[in-house]
Amino acid sequence: MARPSLFCAFLFILTLEVSLVMGAPTNCGPIQATDIDRIEFSLNLEFLEAEFFLNGALGRGLDSFAPSFAKGGPPPIGARRAILNPLAAQIIEEFGYQEIGHLRAIISATGGIPRPQLDLSAQNFANFINQALGVEAGQDAVIRTLLYERANEIVLPYGKTVAEFVNRTAELKNRLANCGIKDEGIIVPQSLGAENRTNSNILSANTDSLSYARTPPEILRIVYGTGSENKPGGFYPNGAGGNIARRYLSPA
Ligand SMILES: *[C@@H]1O[C@H](CO)[C@@H](O)[C@H](O)[C@H]1NC(C)=O
Ligand SMILES: *[C@@H]1O[C@H](CO)[C@@H](O)[C@H](O)[C@H]1NC(C)=O
């Protein structure tokens, strides 16, 4: 199976850093949870991002910089240093350090949770990318700008342009989350552009150009790659940590 370029992998990870909808019952509506549980839920994504950026840029992860943050959770599976151009390497290294800061802030406020088992293997990314291509064949803005500049380049080995890639990964996330359009490509029909007037779409946002928000279950459906908050997989082979994620993992 083709290995995805790191480029594609970034698309997937970066657009996960979304504001969480706080506050019930349908599959797309707000959920009931304490503030602490909500903040700890966000640690799942912070761990993923920290490990992905640090390992991608430097070839070593959180255990090299702040081992106590993992609270005994296992190291990620399959994390590797990526081949990056100097600009990308610098940006990703900076993002990695920023994630350490986010983790520190949250852990000192809430006490934290053990790092969940993460799967950052090329095979896992390939599964997501193949799913994205197969079916219907602040940080985020920086990366989307870089991507936009390269929108017409072909991503090897897939033979798709960067713009198509962003579109397909956005479509996959929308499909997995199952709550409408909340992620968009970087080149879009004007109906998704700013004020229905642009095809460029550096910021993915709603009809009032406000950022989309996703609830914790929507996020779990995406990062598990299964479309179900009850079925772990994808980046979290054993499920995400903390009270919110665990409540959906009741024994089948
Ligand atoms: C993906 O591209 C198609 C064709 O331009 C468009 O109709 C669709 O809205 C795009 N999807 C997203 C999520 O940007
Ligand atoms: C843009 O078009 C959509 C329908 O595609 C409409 O609902 C929305 O109000 C329009 N926005 C503006 C600012 O005209």
TrEMBL record:
The keyword Signal applies. Residues 1-23 form the signal peptide. InterPro entries: Pigment-catalase-like. The keyword RNA-binding does not apply. It comes from the Eukaryota. Keywords: Signal. This is Desiccation-related protein PCC13-62. It comes from Quercus lobata.
